[in-house]
Design brief:
This protein is α+β, with helices and mostly antiparallel strands. The protein is 36% helix and 27% strand.
Length: 282
């Protein structure tokens, strides 16, 4: 079985208080995008060990990988006994804030659930996903959402316009854990999530632009100044709807003008950045 594992961008992130479990409560808008990995999962008829491989040598394929964690969570929750071969074909860059690892984990959960009888409900899969990673429930649902709590509270939202998306990623990636730790030490900016939802529902780009704010962006810029340079360049090119996704280091711009984004993509690629042209997957 081969599944697409779509990534996401965060149009805004409001980082709230730190929890007793070490995570932060957040209030954010996440949107699935067309950029995706492929995950191939094959049931093995012999042996008792599940294998994980990836075509990107930078991705660690040991027990710390979310895809393998997802399989083990399914195994423990549903007494899965059959082993699998899991092969990940990466397209989503790592350490980018695009939920590539969580998307792969969600694909594993869906595939194992497909092989399992009787049918497992989506609600139950979301509960399992929550134990694997904060973005995994969203990747399982794969709809534009307001995401709250640690990532487990999902409220689908309506988006009027299906924007094209240019993603620009510096060569340097950023660790989510390290970015959050740094953000705790500096002053954070806070978006108005309610207003952003209103802007998205109405297609009001002025409201969207004013509220596309990421509480983690200043911390990310301290560790990767290219984030600032990319966002400034996007704004100078006329892409007002731009920001950093997740904990970075990938930045993005939204536009209905795909040709303008194609031109910008060539510009950033000439500067040595990784670029991806995609769209909302809604």
């Amino acid at each position: 079985m081969i599944l697409k594992a779509p990534g996401k961008i965060n149009l805004a992130i409001n980082v709230l208080e730190k929890r007793d479990d070490g995570y932060h409560n957040v209030d954010m808008i996440s949107v699935p995008i067309g950029l995706h990995d492929h995950v191939e999962i094959t049931e093995l008829v012999q042996g008792n060990e599940t294998f994980l491989t990836c075509d990107d040598i930078e991705l660690v394929c040991d027990e710390s990988n979310l895809a393998l964690k997802a399989y083990k969570a399914m195994q423990e929750n549903f007494q899965i006994k059959k082993p699998y071969r899991i092969e990940i074909y990466k397209r989503i860059p790592i350490e980018a804030g695009l939920a590539g690892g969580s998307a792969d984990a969600a694909a594993v959960i869906k595939a194992v659930a497909h092989y399992h009888k009787p049918t497992i409900s989506l609600e139950r899969l979301l509960e399992v996903g929550e134990t694997v990673g904060s973005d995994v429930p969203f990747c399982l649902l794969n709809k534009p959402c307001r995401v709250q709590g640690r990532g487990e509270i999902l409220t689908p939202i309506k988006i009027k316009e299906n924007y094209h998306v240019l993603i620009v990623k510096p060569k340097k990636g950023l660790s989510t854990k390290v970015v959050y730790e740094r953000a705790d030490l500096i002053e954070k900016v806070h978006p108005n999530i309610d207003l952003l939802i209103k802007g998205l529902e109405e297609g009001n780009e002025k409201i969207i632009t004013e509220n596309m704010v990421n509480s983690l962006q200043n911390a990310a810029i301290e560790m990767c100044p290219d984030v600032r340079e990319i966002i400034l360049s996007l704004k100078q090119m006329g892409f007002d709807m731009c920001s950093m996704s997740g904990s970075g280091s990938a930045c993005f711009a939204l536009s209905k003008d795909v040709k303008a984004l194609q031109y910008a993509s060539k510009f950033f690629a000439s500067k040595g950045y990784l670029t991806y042209l995609t769209s909302f997957n809604i």
